[in-house]
Specification:
Strand 1 and strand 2 form a beta hairpin. It contains 7 helices and 2 strands. By secondary structure, it is mainly alpha-helical.
């Protein structure tokens, strides 16, 4: 009986962990779209104020490495004067961030 209870507990914990990794589109909507737009063009009110890049532009995509995108999402981003432009995504795992980078790449036309 103890083994069954332990097994059920482990399986429940594993299911909770698997459910915590959200869909990249959902993460984009929750964490990025306010500034970068749901389409990645950065044409939201906030995106225009912050001069967000248009991620549908192939040249913008070419200038951004996956590593730089990952770092900006994980650690935040500061402008050349040291002012915080983008806060770090504190509630996302590395797997979630990698999913966001891949999702961002899909905007390229």
């Amino acid at each position: 009986m103890k083994k069954i209870i332990l097994l059920a507990g482990v399986m429940g914990f594993a299911a909770a962990l698997a459910a915590s990794a959200a869909d990249p589109k959902d993460n984009w909507s929750a964490s990025c779209a306010r500034c970068h737009g749901s389409d990645g063009k950065g044409q939201t009110n906030m995106g225009k104020r912050l001069d967000c890049k248009d991620y549908t532009d192939a040249s913008v995509q070419a200038a951004l490495t996956d590593e730089a995108a990952f770092k900006a999402i994980k650690e935040g981003f500061k402008d050349k004067d040291g002012k915080t432009v983008m806060r770090p995504a504190a509630n996302l795992s590395d797997t979630d961030i990698k999913g966001l980078v891949a999702y961002l790449r899909a905007f390229k036309k």
